Amino acid sequence: MALVSFTGRVLFASVFILSAWQEFNEFGVDGGPAVEALKPKFNVFSKLVSSHTGVQVPEFNIKYLVAAAVAFKGVGGILFIVGSCIGAYLLVLQQVVITPVLYDFYNYDSEKKEFGLLFTKFSQNLALLGALFFFIGMKNSIPRRQLKKKAPKSKTF
């Protein structure tokens, strides 16, 4: 059963690790195509958040957000393979921050083709997020092994 669990973790984490590897190789000085794709979506998302909540989203270089996402996916994926909850938490954080910004289906009319594509990818990322929550829940529900205290031997004289 341990081999099946390990294989499942490797296959699951490969989605994040391979994505991080690809984005890392394309990163370059300017952040690569990920920054170009994310920058306009982040601007629209921050305006949407500001208009609905009244909270101003601070301005920062999107390149750092992409670098953090790559680091979280890479490190989180490797830690997830070895069964660490910290890896799962890193992947959850990455999913929660990036998914609503990157897959902004809510900015499109439901009749348009982009809506369907973005909503499908958004739903797939929600499924990944659900699997991560399931892993964290299972990890926390299994009691940790406690060392059994050996009963002291009685001394015979």
Notes on the protein architecture:
This protein has 157 residues and is mostly helical. The protein has five helices and no strands. Helix 1 packs antiparallel against helix 3, helix 3 (62-81) runs antiparallel to helix 4 and helix 4 runs antiparallel to helix 5 (113-141). The protein is elongated.
How helical, in percent, are the residues? over 70%
Count of individual beta strands: 0
Radius of gyration: 21 Å
| Stretches with pLDDT under 50, minimum 5 residues | none
Order of helices and strands: HHHHH
Q: What gap, in angstroms, lies between the N and C termini?
A: 49 Å
Shape: elongated
- Oligomer, anyone? single chain
Q: What is the tally of helical segments? A: 5
Average of per-residue pLDDT values: 88
Strand content: under 5%
Biggest beta-sheet profile: none
The helix/strand class is mainly alpha
